[in-house]
Design a protein that fits this description.
The chain is α/β, with parallel strands linked by helices. The protein has two domains: about 100 residues, no CATH class; about 160 residues. Helix content is about 45%, strand content about 15%. The protein is built from twelve helices and ten strands. A ten-stranded mixed beta sheet has the order 3-2-1-4-5-6-7-8-9-10. The longest helix has 21 residues. About 5% of the residues have low confidence.
Length: about 280
């Protein structure tokens, strides 16, 4: 009977890419209960203590469309339904365990072609947050991650974990393959920074800037920040908003460095304003 290894290498590479690379380039690790299998059903008939421990066991599932399937999506309330009906929306690394040749041929493909995506810094719905996810993955696997994108939340208590997250990623850069961090603020989230800076919660804003600068100081991996562009306007309020927007952008960039992108336009590069 023909096997996968009988196919030409070029075709095998296409199959590997289809199985191990997210179409959009982003994957999000969500914690879901393990699926019900014959083995799991048999384990329920064993001793009560061991059965309970197995029933509580959960696994990371690699969601391939985290923009559409957020950690709070209602479908994750019934994990079995998700696994049965949305099989194209998550990846499995089981192919790499088929045999030694396939393992060697796919070495690095999953890690080099996918970006790990997180909704916020901490736990959110089915997402465990950056630091806990890397801990669950273990030192060996987490050191293979090359790129991380974090969709930042509105400024609040969750930012207390910012320095820990940055220190964790910095250690993966020093001891592993980590190469690129991208921080993304949406309109609502960025507006919360503007409100904090000029709306009365300056200490919280300053603490965030201090954690950004301290957590990233001396690290050499690539850093990219994406923020929304300030909408144009003619009245005095709009002019004030533009000034506040520019000040927040400047503070973020001087703390983080790297590349600052407003909308789709690069505004700062390595602490130098572009286009002056």
């Amino acid at each position: 009977m023909p096997s996968l290894l009988d196919l030409p290498r070029e075709i095998r590479d296409e199959i590997y890419t289809y199985c191990l690379v997210s179409p959009g380039g982003l994957i999000a690790p969500y914690l879901l209960p393990r699926c019900n299998t014959l083995k799991a059903n048999a384990s329920r008939r064993r001793a009560i203590k061991s059965t309970k421990s197995r029933q509580k066991k959960q696994h990371l599932h690699l969601i391939s469309d985290p923009i559409a399937l957020t950690p709070h999506d209602a479908i994750f309330q019934t994990p079995d339904l998700f696994r049965d009906t949305r099989k194209s929306d998550y990846l499995s690394l089981s192919l790499r365990s088929t045999c030694r040749q396939i393992y060697n041929e796919t070495a690095g493909l999953f890690w080099s072609r996918n970006t790990f995506y997180f909704e916020g810094l901490g736990e959110s719905g089915r997402g465990m947050g950056v630091a806990r996810t890397l801990k669950v993955m273990g030192q060996t696997a987490s050191r293979l991650i090359e790129r991380v994108t974090i969709r930042m939340t509105s400024l609040g208590p969750e930012y207390g974990a910012l320095r820990k997250v940055l220190n964790t990623l910095s250690s993966r850069a020093r001891l592993g393959n980590f190469k690129r961090l991208e921080l993304v603020w949406g309109k609502v989230e960025f507006w919360s920074l503007m409100d904090a800076l000029y709306g009365g919660d300056v200490p919280l804003f300053d603490a965030m800037i201090e954690d950004l600068g301290g957590g990233l100081a001396g690290e050499r991996f690539e850093r990219v920040v994406r923020v929304p562009v300030c909408p144009p306007g003619d009245d005095d309020d709009d002019e004030e908003d533009r000034m506040v927007h520019e000040e927040v952008v400047r503070c973020l960039h001087y703390a983080i460095g790297g590349t600052m992108i407003c909308g789709d336009v690069v505004k700062w590069k390595d602490r130098v304003m572009v286009g002056i």
